[in-house]
Amino acid sequence: MNASRLRTGSYFALPEILQKNMATNAAGSETVPYSYANKKVTLLFTFKVWMTWNAASSYQRNFDNFYMAVKRLDSDFDAIILTECWLNEGTILEPIPGYSVSRTNEQLNKNGGIVIYTKSRYNITTLEHTVADADSILLTIDKKLALLGIYRSPSYANIDNFTSSLDTALLEIKSIPTIILAGDLNIDLCNTTNHRHTEYLCLLASHGLLPAITEPTREHTCLDHIFIKSHHESIGVIGKCSITDHDMVMASISQKNNYKDCTKTRWRLKTDDDAVAAAIGPQDTGIA
């Protein structure tokens, strides 16, 4: 994927209900009008559930606030990802009209679990993917798009097992042309001095996945990620809100491939040795 096709980490203006404690982007990245993101065909929305005491007081307790936020955004999201949901066997998945819902059935921690809503019109295949030291779920759409949702707890300081397992998981879906990896990874993309940051980015880049979000999503850290592999133009946006201590991160992939009609030009380099020698002229090397 051409890096120029992916615009990263821009902030956009949210409706009033979500503007509480709105912060400006200290890094000075471009402000993207929401109408711009709304023109894209595939809009991904990763939402960190407000952490409280148990499952009943996180995903379920805060669902009404979350649903109101989605309605106020007034956009036709193709997929909505909720991470760190405090799921258990008794958790009731709330319906959203027009969407199908999937979840992880096993969680590594009591605060873990992922819930993904996808448009009902899509033919979804769901696989609770095993990525070491993380909760993960893989959704595929007609073998044309793969959506990998991940929640990685900060309690795992060493990422070696995670990255090795993630490498294997990505190899298994390498034939799928469009891949979106999204979730709360608890790896700070803003901390460029940490080797974990470099190893993680290099691994994903080796699979053609580039970051759509590179600005802070929680205080001064970028912990909530969206990585995209696609031949189409993509954009990532970040929105601050008061519902959760993490920012909302979104990404979209345009329906039209703006690059597929570009004319390919073959270049051949030829050197005129005589002209080069004449231009340089006799040289005194100083060697006797």
TrEMBL record:
Domain (Endonuclease/exonuclease/phosphatase) ranges: 51-234
GO molecular function, one term: catalytic activity
Top-level lineage group: Eukaryota
Pfam families attached to this UniProt entry: Exo_endo_phos (PF03372)
Protein name as it appears in the record: Endonuclease/exonuclease/phosphatase domain-containing protein
Native organism: Spodoptera exigua
